[in-house]
Amino acid sequence: MSRPACPLYLGSEEVEKHFPSASLLIPPLETALANFSSGPEGGVVQPLRTVVPVEKYNGFLGVMPAYSAVDDALTTKLVTFYENMKDTSVPSHQATVFLFDPRNGTLKAVIDGTVITAKRTAAVSAIATKFLKPAVADVLCILGAGVQAHSHYEIFTELFSFKEVKIWNRSREKAETFAQSVKGPAQVCSSAQEAVTGADVIITVTMATTPILFGSWVKSGAHINAVGASRPDWRELDDDVMRNSVLYVDSREAALTESGDVILSGAEIFAELGEVVKGTKPALSEKTTVFKSLGMAIEDTVAAKLVFDSWSSSN
Length: 315
Ligand SMILES: NC(=O)C1=CN([C@@H]2O[C@H](COP(=O)(O)OP(=O)(O)OC[C@H]3O[C@@H](n4cnc5c(N)ncnc54)[C@H](O)[C@@H]3O)[C@@H](O)[C@H]2O)C=CC1
Ligand SMILES: O=C(O)C1=NCCCC1
What we know:
This protein is α/β, with parallel strands linked by helices. It has helices at residues 12-18, 22-36, 114-132, 147-159, 172-181, 192-196, 239-243, 252-258, 260-265, 273-278, 297-313; strands at residues 8-10, 44-45, 50-54, 59-68, 73-82, 93-100, 107-112, 139-143, 164-168, 187-188, 201-204, 223-226, 246-249, 269-272, 289-292. The model has no long low-confidence stretch (mean pLDDT 96).
């Protein structure tokens, strides 16, 4: 019996090089979301992720396995995320995706998951926004100025035509650095309220554990992508915005288990994004809408397969 070859290793630079542009990532992600929301006939097997708290250091390890029959792809992502890190040279989120041969279980590749996590999360928010943003959407607001703020800025300014981008961060200095580093306009705001006021699309991408977005600030009909607060006792959005918006989620099961914004507000889930993509639930874009994103393993499966296939075809 021959031993399997050593798995390929693709670091973050290789992943960047082989990452398709946003427009290429959106169709397979839409298919994956729709398949996930189709139950067993969609061919997606994705158990709720396991999250191991590392209490002593305010950290968490997430284990995110998934199989997609349509893509014939089997992966698991290991992701760590740490709050209040003193050493800012280490990113708060670090991830690795393991890609297996689904026919025999051989590990084919170990792929840096940090770039994948940044890009696929932003691409999913962009899908939600495509369906749920108001007919006129001129002003984008981003709360947060970290990794996800960058990936969201990149894809949102590529796919949509906002006239204004307003950004707020807990430390203004980081928001200023963000505004100087992006390729395009970004207006730094002194408060979250100032950034949110008048915005048609809002993205929350912070490590906040208590609300930073309040319903009284939000323009009627706006669309909110709530990306942070992925623990059952963490919040980014207050009860007002949660209860007075139409609530879309990536996964009902995950939202009811992991999202403090959903669990603690008692807000009712209207639909999964995949149901909107399939057309079995409407996109109520004239209403104020929230897309609560927790991140799904199947998104990593699709993205990792794209990177691996691109690497394979060029080597
Ligand atoms: N839904 C999903 O699929 C995913 C969600 N996330 C979540 O997105 C959020 C942003 O992630 P990254 O950009 O990678 O993190 P990051 O560490 O690069 O950036 C976090 C930003 O939040 C700010 N911040 C930290 N503590 C805060 C507080 N208490 N109040 C307000 N702002 C605060 C920081 O100044 C920083 O600008 C996190 O909550 C993360 O867990 C991350 C990956 C995937
Ligand atoms: O989907 C992911 O990856 C993550 N989601 C929530 C926070 C950690 C990473």
